[in-house]
Amino acid sequence: MGNLRRKLTIAALALASATGVLAVPATASAATANVQIQICNDNNAALKFFLVGYNDQGDWVNSRFWDVPANGCTTASNYWWQTNSSVEFHYVRPPAGWTWHQVYVPKSKNGRTFTYHQS
To answer: May I ask which residue range the UniProt record assigns to the signal sequence (predicted)?
Structure first.
């Protein structure tokens, strides 16, 4: 009985090991279509923004806040977003209140920066 239990345990470990090895390429390839987003403010008033959407790991997340100077650009660095998808672009220009709209992030190479202009 002990010999059978040992053989079943070894078989189960081998199967788990094989499954884990096979899962690695799928996980790595899922994260290849992602970009950072740069917001360019085509306006004479500064704005503050944050993004909400699916990150490169497939999780729905909120970014931190960034400031964009008047007629300037800011990259939402260290946040990677899925391509061929939309993110929520939330922004404010005081004294107006917060507003948002969806921004489509087109397919792009891994590691590139997608630039969006807000007027």
So the answer is: 1-23
